[in-house]
Amino acid sequence: MVTEMRPRIAATLTELFERDDRLAIVLAEISTDLFRGPRRSDPARAVNVGIMEATMVGVAAGFAMEGFHPVAHTIGPFMTERPFEQLKLDFGYQGLEGTFVSVGGSYDYGAEGGTHHAPGDVGVIATIPGMEILAPGTAAEADRLVRASYANGRASYLRASLAQNTVSFEVEPGRLEVARHASHDDAPVVIAFGPMLSRTLEAAAGLDVTVAYATSVVPFDAPGLAAIAGDHPHLIAVEPWYEGTVTGTLAAALAHVPSRIDAIGVPRRFLRDYGSAAEHDRANGLDIAGIGGRLRAMVAV
């Protein structure tokens, strides 16, 4: 069984491609080796347009208008920022169906510099009304979310990453999981998004907090959050993208009660240092020690 997200997603899409002749794959020079099978078996449905991301989205829109289920794939900033106008107009405005799979966010390509960083991807995509946003935490969850989104009648953004959790859940779009319960109902609720769950659970050791787990940003499980948050909730989001990206979503989910919302995520500044993803995590306070220190300070207030 493939244990990394990107090859697992490619294997899932290859399987779906072979049994669903309405699935089309559009690439922009990234991961072409992982899709060698579809490109050989039906090159009319599995297309590599080269390093032209706007064209990739445009070709995917053409497939969608002809009744196909297009899936486009490339690196995070090339998937969400370079072709943003095409995503907004070709898919959002026209209401077309398509799945857009990225890798590399926020700084998995940390040694490549700012052109390959994508901590703003979810915030960018969230400005497109109706766009589904999914962030699996393991390869197995990526498999489930690809199967759930590739032909669901809407445009979906799926954010894959190198970092993974140690345990998988049977996730579904729009469903919040509870990974750990506090000892009392009024305890703070920490919501870990995507691959932040395992490190958040370790960081929260010794704290009396409920830890919830979200792989779905849009749609978000507002009823599920309300059910565990209590009447005067204190929420802490631990997110793998820019800090505060999901704050509005959480506030809207709890608009019926007064609440406090804190966020732990990628600092809103340009990352000018070069290094591995783990080194960036440490530098940005998103490793276990960094998250733990901030959680303890937030819970103590």
Approximate shape: globular
CATH homologous superfamily label of the largest domain: Thiamin diphosphate (ThDP)-binding fold, Pyr/PP domains
Rg measurement, Å: 19 Å
Q: Give the strand content.
A: 15-25%
Order of helix and strand elements from N to C terminus: HEHEHEHHEHEHEEEHEEHEHEHH
What is the CATH class of the largest domain?
Answer: Alpha Beta
Please list the strands of the largest sheet in the order they lie side by side: 2-1-3-4-6-5-10
Mean pLDDT: 96
- Total number of domains: 2
Q: Which secondary structure elements does this structure contain, and how are they paired or packed?
A:
Layout: H1 5-19, E1 23-27, H2 36-41, E2 46-48, H3 53-65, E3 69-75, H4 76-80, H5 84-93, E4 98-103, H6 121-125, E5 132-134, H7 139-149, E6 155-159, E7 176-180, E8 189-193, H8 197-203, E9 210-214, E10 216-218, H9 222-229, E11 234-242, H10 247-253, E12 260-266, H11 277-283, H12 288-300
Parallel strand pairs: 1-2, 1-3, 3-4, 4-6, 5-6, 8-9, 8-11, 11-12
Antiparallel strand pairs: 5-10, 7-9
